[in-house]
Protein 1
Amino acid sequence: MRNALYSYGRLAARRPWQLLAAWLLVAAAIVGAWSVVGTTIDDDVRIPGSDSNRAQEVQAAVFPASALGNGTLVFHNADGSVTSTEDRTAIEASLRAVQELDEVTQVVSPFPQQPGQPAPRVSADGHTAYARVYFDVPSAALDEQAADRVLAAAAPATDAGLEVLPGGQLAKAAAGDPGHRSELIGLAVAAVVLLVALGAAAAMALPIISALVGLVLGLAAIGLLSQFGAIPDLATTVASMISLGVGIDYALFIVVRYRAARQEGDSHERALGVAVATAGAAVLFAGATVAVGLGGLLLAGLPLLTSLGWTAAVAVGLSVLAAVGVLPAVLGIVGSRLGAGALLWHRSNAPKAGWWRRIGEGTARRPWLAVVGSLMVLAVFIAPVAGLTLGQQDDGHDPAGTPTRQSYDLLESAFGAGVNGPLLVVADLGDAAGGDRAAMQQQALAVNSALASVPGVSSVQGPQVSDDGSAALWQVVPTTAPSDPATGDLVTELREEILPPLATDGTQLHVGGQTAAKIDFTDQVADRLPLVLAVVIALSFLLLVILFRSVVIPLTAALMNLLSVGAAYGILTFAFAEGHLTALLGLDGPVPIESYIPLILFAVLFGLSMDYEVFLVSSIAERWRAERDNRRAVVTGLGSAGRVVTAAALIMFSVFISFAGQDNPVIKMFGVGLGLAVLLDAVVVRGFLVPGIMVLLGRANWWFPRWLERIMPRVDLEAHPSAGETPAGLPPLDEASDGLPPAGEASDGFPPVDGPVLETR
């Protein structure tokens, strides 16, 4: 592989414009196709084999309208009653106008059709009412424009002085696309970090360009692949977050390696070949470790996690392609101008011995202090995990003032918390379909009576019987919120105690709806969690065994990664579940942690931690192979790689934490959890704990059984060909000067070699 990468780097130096044009043509084709078909989104939660999934299948088959997109229109009169003649006339005129919209299939009025009938969608005090609106497209296809048309059609009610709010899926559509503010903030902060780390505007720009190319290609590829299977909207956001972070980091490693080779005296062509063959190979390996972590999500057997896993893996893969494929072509063009726009202080004010080397020397002198101190710091972050409990979020956890939160609060105050997450009881009549109508009616009445008598049930609406008489549907409104554990207990009681005795004559009764689906989802995540953890850890261990030809280093790396994951869980618990940072993040109070968030955090963070392990320990391993002095190898390797790993972590932190500004609490959790955990991992774990343990273990770090030596393939990421030598017999290069000064001199703003130049060797 190194031979091919070395040749590609040389080709990029000789024919950069041709290579860049070829890449742009490929990118244009992919993005052009994406612009035509778009991205297929489906936010419904499905759990194969679960009771909620069976209810969803029956509902989609016999009640197709209710299975498509729907939402609520909430009408509120704080000073009067919506049942007054004036208000009711305005509301009914609004609903007729909504019904006439092309995308609307049905509108269910809050008012009874016949005098004396109950009005469950009108509050007891008469101040609030809500209507159900059904659309001819899935919920994911509802957009801001559709919500605006519905609200515009409700103008008669607004003109009459009523407050009109969208609710449910309609409110989510009204909130619109969050835009790309988070990405722009992350890029801006990352640019500052890069400028300080690299010392030149031109060098700073290249990782940003590479990351943006990878991001666009990744989103385009995800969009094209989504035509074969819809993905949740969350998947594109998580993929963007990870793609930007790793894209900048991977490009940074290659740019730094190229600069180091130039300042060691290599020609432009040779330096680019070496950079792609060494740092490029490390980037490929690092991308593979992240993909292994994300691939573990596929083992959960849940469509949501499968989508999050493969979309993020595709995004990482395209970021790797941009760094290893597109970036060398751009570097081939920029060449000696890489130092353009250099910071003056960056050219002269840094000492030769970096502070990470001094930290390494201190660690070598007092390794126990570094290990114990690091573990104490990590213990502070891990400690809150003892109080970690998983739960469900609902629209009541969204920031105040958002459309979803406004309608949620209004409906809760008028009808109780359960109205925001009704359960669906679906009866599949089976052999009883088309039978004795009187018997069917008797059974329906029995179901109604049984449901209404259950403690925790606020109201029961239905049954709605299908046209062919094969199924019936009830809407059950709990007394508690969708996120309340009591609602989960109610679902369990309905399934295990209330409904089984009523399932007679071949009738099957299922409990569905999004609230029930999330409960099933939590149960299946808990069942599959041990398998996912075991496979990801085992595969990551195997990859590091192959890379470092050691058993001890991969084992300690896995343990260190678990500590970083534990710290991430502790941060989430402290910040969100206990509510200590929710006010700072724009939330009102404690927010439960969804069951899938720890699993996704594990998959992503385990892979990213392996990235830093690869870049740090490969630098240490190179010194070990050259000198066979473990203590010296740790000091020199940390001094060399510590700066670039820290810069990479700061960039990753900047990108991740910027997503905490989004309204969605789940995205906030990913941004805060991943951002702080990555920074903690790079500084505390890789900067102090891993070097301290390696010093204590000494030569045992490199123990490798002979039988493994014989069967394991060999991977060398960091070997540097000496002058006049190339990998695997490639012809020597012409080392004639290409206009750059020799090592130690500066030209055109390029920092001299004795300045703070980041290295990977």
Note: Confidence is low (pLDDT under 50) at residues 348-353, 719-761.
Protein 2
Amino acid sequence: MMTVIPYVENGQNIGYRVYCKGASEIVLGRCAYLLGSDGKPHALTSDRLKEITSTIIHEMANSGLRTICVAYKTFIKKGTRDLEKTEIEFAEESVIDWDDEEAMYQNFTGIAICGIQDPVRPEVPNAIAKCKKAGITVRMVTGDNIMTARAIAMACKILEPGEDFLALEGKEFNERIRDENGKVSQAKLDEIWPRLRVLARAQPADKYTLVKGIIDSKATAQREIVAVTGDGTNDGPALKKADVGFAMGIAGTDVAKEASDIILTDDNFTSIVRAVMWGRNVYDSISKFLQFQLTVNVVAVLTAFVGAVTVSDSPLKAVHMLWINLIMDTLASLALATEQPTDELLERKPYGRKKSLISRTMVKNILCHALYQLVIIFVIFFYGDTIFGIKSGLYAPLFAPPSQHFTLVFNAFVMMTVFNEINARKVHGERNVFKGLASNRVFCVIWITTFIAQIIIIQFGGAWFSTHPLTLQQWIVCLVLGFSTLIWGQIVATIPSKKLPKAWKVGKGDVQPAKLHINGDYNVRARSRALTLRRSGKSLWMRGMFIIGNHLRVLRAFGMEKSEKAAFGRTAPAMTAEAAERWRASYRKYRHQKHQEKKAAVETAESVKSADWAKEQKEKRKTFKQIKQVVRGKSVDKEGKKHHKKRKDETNVDMEDIELH
């Protein structure tokens, strides 16, 4: 950065002084002199420059200091005073070409080299260590000196002794990744980025090139997920290109915030670690709920199906299914989704982009627990009356009161489901399912509430819930069966998931986008659709309502009584004779009035039409007569015609007189 100020001496403006600051090795290379300890300028030779670079600049950079060199040069007007060896004389201001950067950045006098320390936050090394443990590679892209960048990376634990890493400057980085034509080669970039940890003296384009190269790389089995942090305007392209862009909320510019996906309100790297931890916790919560829900669904559906097929009756009534769905959907989702994230989530490697939503471990848990519960339920269903010495509920009449037999089946199923909810807290094969249970108060409250509600439903539900009170012995058996699911869960955990077929995974692979048109049709050819009129959502909705209305009318027609069907074709309601006579009289009057109005309108139209027709015919006859006279050679002049007629009359009079004499 450069600043120009007027140079005043003894109250007189004698020229200009230019101050410059910047990277020490660059600015010092533009200096011709350097102020010594005596305060006087001394010539800066190449040997002296190398000595300062190696003994001062590199030493400061290795200590993690950002070095800045401050320099100046002076322009003196001609004739104002004698020049010193470091000053430049000019006759007129027009002689100084301020736009010539190459000339302006020469012949400086170095003042000092400053070392600025930007201390690393105490929590950053620990956060980066957690990222490494979680399988996240941290790379630093900075504009600092390579020595400074390496020292800061060592302090942050980005670089550690014994690691195979690369620390490059932007110039060397571009030389390695570009081909003979100056274009970025993906093959060359794939050889560098896996080991690259520090990129110093980097330009904004270098950061974007690195992000794009990692995203487009095929060097790894799965595509890398890239997250980028930035605070400046120049970081916008890289933040936009990355899968996840983090902008600084305090020091970040508006451009960086708009280009990012997440804004760190505290500008702290540890917030990124917490975001990763919460993201994995959400993923695990979804997996826990799916595992528990699918287990309950499989058992409930098969129990109802087998009961309906074998004995034409299901031990799980409609109200039982509603209560099970309430446990499964609402309460279980609240209980399993309120687990707080722990540091153990960062000890696992990140999930791949094509990882199955339902893993082999989850499939193993679902099938094994469902099989165990089905065996117990069917044993109680078919042999429970014999085992417990109670009246059988099989083949009961249609409106028979709730049986103790079916209530026992329902209670055993709910108890196993409630205890299996504890097993569902761990979906990665962990042994200790009680770890962290006491800290999750929401889970404990929901679990205890569900247990107490089940007791109330069984003992006091009666006909409302299709239940029969159970004895103490039967309750103990149900509790033992429920607790046995925890023991069965430990047995299932001993089965190695890696030995299971890979085809057991569900939801694997990338989601391919389908062709979606405005009307909601999928996977149709655009060319064929372009020739047809697309129906809007409103028209489809109206069509659906019309079909529903037709269905309702048909249902009402089938549900009519005989008397209603007889009157189905009537067009008017029944009336008394007097009312009907009044209605007919008013109707005749109305018809007569309408007939008179119509007749008057027709007559008026005909009279107007006849007058117009007579006038039109007169004009036609006149025109035809004129055309006929012209064709015969006669004049159509009226005056000439009158004169000729007058002479003819005079001639006729004379002839008469002659005859009389």
Note: The first strand starts at residue 2 and ends at 9.
Protein 3
Amino acid sequence: MSKNKSKKRKAKRGGSWEEAPVGHSVIDSRKPGQEWQNDISAPSPLYDRLLGWLCFAGLLVLAFLLSFHTLVDTDIFWHLKTGELIFQTRRVPLEDIYSFTAAGREWIDSQWLFQLAVYSLHRISGYSGIIVFSSLLACLTLLLILAPAFKPEKYFLTVLFGLGTLLAASIRLKARPEILSFLYAALEIYLLGRFRQGKKWAWYPLPFLLLLWVNSEGLWPVYFAILGAFWGEELLMALLPGLQKYVRRISPLPPGQSAGQLLLCLACSIPLAFLNPHHVRGVVFPWVLFREVSSKGNYIHQLIWDNQNPFTFLPALDRDVFIALIAGSALLFALFLYRRILSPAALVLYAVFLYMALGALRNVALFSIITGAAVCLILGENRDRELLPVWLIKRGFLKLRPLGACIVLGLLIYLGYDAVSSNFFFRNIMHAKFGTGALATEYPIRGGDFLKAIMSKDGELKPLRIASDMESAGYLIWKGYPAWKIYFDPRLEVYGDKFLLEYLNVFSDPSRFAEADARYDFDAAVISSLQDRSELTVHLARNPAWALVYMDGFSVIFLKNKPALAAVIARHRVDPSLGFSSPVPKELSGKWLGRERYCRGYLLLKLGFPALAVPELEEAVRNWPDNYEANFNLGRALNLLQRYAEAVPFLEKAVEMQPEPIPGRIQLGRACAGAGQQERAVSIFIGVLKQHPHEMVACMDLARTYESMHRSRDAREQWRLCQEIYQTNPEFFRRYENEIS
């Protein structure tokens, strides 16, 4: 027989014989005795196919709903400002223009296409256009993941795996450049899957996809990882033909020819990576940034919250889904190997991106997208109705598939309702609300607009040098550039590691803030994350060189006492001792309103105004009753006002929610002692000291309680124990020295 002719080979294509070209190996993955109703060529009931389509459509709708929420990314506003500048000047900034601390320093803006896109959308339809755009991208990404595997005759595993992929990635589905990388990665795997099926044209768009990627988002090196994995698989098959006994190749092209074409694709892609505004520096930048971000000794790593361990910092649902996705993928790859349909490229991608995801929370979504796309690619190449172990099929497991589909549909409806009601976004700590817009509780919108209003005269904005933190800087850039220059913003790579250490110290240590003020001569300070930076806030509020002019639940604003700002300060100075009033956003209710009122109450409490804090904290508890911090601080404020009996129920609830923290138990003990429940207070303090023998505050409170009960001997003994605790570390306990002596 001629070499150019096809010879018959037994192939597992619906249990039939089919022609296979010479040089192309198709391995029979069906085990003897497997029932033929598991093949997709067998008829499937209409109701079963309808359930399949409903599940598929439901997943796409859920992808849209889970990403259709208010803006939550701290970077979005400086992205908008940069997009506006690119739109107006027709050029990409090459150096820092926003800060007075890194002005003129090189800035590699690898996200300029995303910035231009979101600004253009904002010009047309405001924030709504940006949010709808990101939701459609999320929906399209999931469609590309599911498309290779989904058929109404074989849908259950695809839908189940797609749901896991979506939920694991949901915490990153928001309006940020990264969402384009998710789309590009899913599209690249989809096209390479088509190439595996013999569509030679499928690799032609890939270099142009890279060109888009390299100008849209910094994760574009992932393109080469995916392409390299598929090229390596074809090369391996060409060099080791014997491997085709263990893995299925469905491509009609010989492995050597496929490897050659993918190598050509790789060669065409590399030059296009340099077609960015920064050329060679733009190509090098992502690799350097990846090294810095992944180095735990680096301050960039410390400042990026989502570099943390995913098992520790992921919300409960996201963590459980992530674990299930890891385990489910591993089981499927084991099944692929057993059925001899494993794709080495898919396995390599799973291993590489799993390693990255285990090291940083921020990589969980990328792992989910790539693993989902790779697994669905293999599921789509399989002819079985459902890829299951033989013994399950023999026991009629497929007859239960409609029931499983109904359960999945119910879960999709529940999750959709959870998203529409916004509860989903609060549980996964995004604190977003379903719908469009930007919440005033997540950005310094009220403070920034107030500052712009008081610093504007005759349509011109007065220049300011603002001591800004990472959370507030983006919005200040959006509202005030070019008149306002900021101290720091989220573009961490621009500032360098040495400056990042300075920033961390400046916003945590008032003395270091004073040093920075002497060096840079700030005009204003905008401070957010009030609970973490309360020490600096209290220091500036008591410092005569600064004047508090604005305060809400997200941020506070101070102006420096300079002659040029004296008139503004005189009109707008805030003195909480004369009362406090700050408007609450009308759109807030429930937990979002509770969070706003809690932050205001906490700040007033730290500033030394417990009487003003109590109404705010009462509203916080009313709107967010299961919040530990709100209950604890309300009880603490009532204790300071000596309203002990009122404090007891709130502190009891706080201790019930979190029994371990010492401050909650000590405050409860104080409330009980003040409310006439001395025996209970003694029991609480003794319990604390049994667990923490060197807890000085509990020791002193127990001594005072004994005194109030006229138990002089016990009181003297307790003060003696306090002396012993003091002697263990006099320097640490110096503030208690006078009272103990």
Note: The chain is about 60% helix and 5% strand.
Protein 4
Amino acid sequence: MGADQSTRIYNVPIDEKKQGSSQIMRHPNFQKDLVNTPFPNIKNIQDLILHGYSLDKNKEFLGTLNQTTNQYEYITYDTVMTQAKSIASALQNLSLLKEAKDYKNYDLKLVGIYAKNRAEWIVSDIANALYGYTMVPLYDSLGPESISYVLGHSGITTCYCSTPSIQTLSKTKDLHELKNIIAYDEVPAELQDLMKSRGITIYKYSDLLAKGSENILPLPTLTPQTIFTFSYTSGTTGNPKGAMISHKNILSSVAGHMNSDVKFVSSDIHLSYLPLPHIFERFVNVSCWLVGAQVAFFSGEITKLKDDIAAAKPTILITVPRLLNRFYEAIKNNLNSNQGFKKMLIDYALETKLQNLEKSGKNTHMLYDAIVFSKIRQVFGGRVRILVSGSAPISPKVMDFFRIALSCIVCEGYGQTEGTGLATVQTILDSKSGNVGGAVSGCEIKLQDVPDMEYLSTDKDENGNPMPRGEICVRGNSIFEGYYKDDEKTKEAIDEEGWLHSGDIGQILPNGGLKIIDRKKNIFKLSQGEYISPEKVENIYVRARGVQEVYVHGESLYNFCIGIIVPNPEVIVKIASELNINETDVATLCQNKQIIEWYLKSLNEFGKKEGLFTFEQPQKIYLEPVSFTVHGCLTTSFKLQRHIAKVHFKKVIEDLYSQQ
């Protein structure tokens, strides 16, 4: 697994360098032609589903946790196909689809969905893919205001819903054109009456399955350009934009995934818990449809994810840094609680495996895996063979820890909604953490100069070797079709040559690997003229002891930035004990001056160690006892919505800047 860093294993240049950007780069195995479909005969997602179905229609496919037995119960691919055809036929036969022909030349048949990940979600998604309908997912954690915006923007008339989602809709002032709800669950009589009073008809999902089965419609002929889904972007800077993702887009990302070292096989089990409205989780599910891999759905509560993993025993674990960091911190705290000989053995095992990983890329050890790391593997079900982290940069230290603790493939990928979730991924030839690998088979990348931030494609390292830096641009079939009814924003995202401008700043390493180093957007300038990238600081601080969430804020009127920190509730109590503070209430501890001073000093020391300049580090902080999620400041992919955080913490920000 070891890789000579002088060997270029990623991002091979295919042209001459041009002024203002790096060379165009592709996957080493796909330099001549990009591969945009998993198999030549698959032209759309309908073809993909029929392929997966043909492999073994009686194979267990979608799993739901039985809360009584704590065992997953699966339905077969054949059952899923029968239900998908039934529900799709019912939508058409009962005229429940919104036909939208008022934007360009698109002829869309829209239906919404508002529920957490569950088997019915995927049945409904497969139904749409088979019949060429377009799904419009509503984000499960959005409040009534944003839900209303999406309803109005898309104009959907029918929406699949869970009961909690119907309750949220009942509190939404303007439901626009929404007239029908397809309820996955039993709906309380009072809630039914309330929605009826607002002109909403509620259909039972089970009733529509039965109704549709009476008159199954034939499958239509679809094109690669058929719009599979709208994916409303996180809206970190305002109202969400409706990215149109086509069958072509999805196939390109699935092909990129299946031509990588982390491809799925039919015996795999994927635990689906990252929100399905987010395109990353969505195309991962479609990859499962292709090979007939099992999909187990989490119980619905992220706080019970550890229990769901133990019950599902997944072979594939797709995650994001925020969650992986929590597991890392909990496991490390547990390991550090040991004493005496046991603690010495654990430390030596960790040190030995990390050294082996560094020297040769080997992540297994016959003795230590059996007596030290087997228990950690059992925490994750004992069968994980691939762990992939995406959505945001993650600490190399965390990545390396899981490589040796789980003895499996652990890698990072990179992508965004507008690129259908996947642009680059690491290979098992690269045992070095700290990069997101190289372009997948269906796209090419380049770095565009950003002179204002002093990131240039002509940059060199301290030894004078080429070290191109700049904004990451991606081109290929995975690039979305555009924002629904927003040509201006589409033109801002995709240039005339078809390049998607990501807004992320990347650097090409000696082995060709792409490293995310900064963000073009979300920067602010302090009064002395220094530019700060808050996400860079946040990604470092979130790894510091006792930190769960971070929001860094700065304004041009002041010469310093400030930080709002959500402490890890368990760790802050331990810190208080170490400081001889006899208090266990987290809210009270967050107001304790001694605790605040400890956090400020600890964060600044950690930031300095990680290479932050003094001006990049907050000079004042506020400890917030409640998660940003509760305040509605995080997207469903756990990214900070700065415009919402700024408004929510307006008084806190004013107080921090007013303190002398």
Note: Confidence is low (pLDDT under 50) at residues 1-6.
